[in-house]
Amino acid sequence: MAPSTKPASKKSSGTKKEKVFHPQSRKAGQLARTQLRKSKLVEHARERSKKHGSQVDIYSFFFHALPPEGGVLSLDELHFVVRDVWLARHDQELEAERAARRKGRPKSTKEAKLEELQLREAEHYRTGMEVIDLTHPLTVELFRKWDQIEAAYIQQLRFVRISSGAPGTAVVSRTGQHALLRREEERRKQAVKDEDEDEAARAAVEMMDTDEAPLLLEPPARFSSTIQTMDAV
After folding, report:
1. Can you list the alpha helix ranges (DSSP code H) found in 73-132?
2. What confidence score (pLDDT) does residue 48 get?
3. How far is Cα 87 from Cα 58, in angstroms, rounded to an integer?
4. CB neighbour list of residue 28: distance below 8 Å, 6 or more residues apart
5. For residue 157, what are the contacts with CB-CB under 8 A and spacing of at least 6?
6. CB count in 10 Å sphere of residue 136
7. 3-state helix, strand, coil in the chain (%, to 5)
8. What is the radius of gyration, based on Cα positions, of the chain?
9. How far, CA to CA in Å, does 163 sit from each of 82, 160, 168?
10. Is 160 exposed, middle or buried (0-12, 13-18, 19+ CB in 10 A)?
C-alpha cells in the first residue's frame, strides 16, 4: 500500500499567542484603565500598610509604657510619658548628628528631618494630641490583651485628647467601640439621666408655691395645740 501523501498536521505548541491591540482601540483602552486601577490599588495598599505599621509602632510604645505591676497611669504620668519619653525619643540621635557636624557646615538631611519632626510633634502636643486613655481602668485592661500586631483592635479602645497647654484636662475624643466599653458608656449615660431627673424633682419641690401646699411648709409646733385637743377627746 502506497504511503499516504497527506501532510501531517502540526501539533499545537501549547502556548497561547498573545493578542496585540491597536493603541486607539476600545480593548486597549480597557486594558489601560484596568492596569491603572490595579496600580492605584497596589499603591493604596502600600500606603495603608505603611500607615498601619506606623500606628502599630506608636501603640506599641504606649503598650510598653503601662505599669508592669498592673493598674493605670495618672494624668500627670500620661503627660510625662508623652512629653519626656515619646517626644524626646530622637534626642540622642539628634545630638549625635549635631556633634558629627563640623563647625560652619550645614545641617545634614537627617538632622534637618529630625528637627522638623520634633517641632511638628511638639506643636501637635501643644494643640491637642489624641492618645489611648491609659487613665481609664477598663481601657487599660483591654489594652493589656492586645497582641501588639493588629492595629484594628486598638481602634475599639477609648481615646482622650491631651495638650501641653492644659495639662490638667483630658477630653474624651472616642468612647470606644468594644462591647465592654459600650456597655460601660450606656450605664454612665443612664446614671447621668437618673441624676438629672432626681435633681429636677428636687428643684420642683423647692419651687412649689406656699399657697399650693401651706401645711407642708408650716413648722410642727404650729399644730401642737390641735394635736393635744384631739388627744383629750
Report:
1. 75-80, 91-100, 109-127
2. 47
3. 11
4. 21, 22
5. 132, 133, 139, 142, 143, 174, 176, 178, 181
6. 22
7. 60, 5, 35
8. 37
9. 10, 10, 9
10. buried
Separation between Cα atoms, residue 71 and residue 134, nearest integer Å: 9
Q: Which amino acid is at 31?
A: L
Task: Give dist(CA 28, CA 75) in Å, integer.
Answer: 61
pLDDT means over runs of 10, the chain (233 residues): 52 52 63 62 49 77 90 96 94 93 91 94 96 97 95 96 96 96 94 90 74 56 56 54
* Rounded CA separation 166/160 (Å): 13
Q: How far apart are CA 99 and CA 68, in angstroms?
A: 36
Measured CA angle at 38 (ends 155, 34), to 5 deg: 140
- Separation CA 152–CA 13 (nearest Å): 50
Residue 159: the pLDDT is 98
Is residue 134 a contact partner of residue 78, using CB atoms and an 8 Å limit? yes
Burial class (CB in 10 A: 0-12, 13-18, 19+), 145: exposed
Secondary structure class of 212 (helix, strand, coil):
coil
Closest-CA residue to 63 (of 2, 153, 128): 153
CB atoms within 10 A of CB 133: 27
- Per DSSP bridges, beta strands 159-162 and 171-174 are antiparallel
Q: Which three cell numbers, joined as nine digits, stand for 181?
A: 466599653
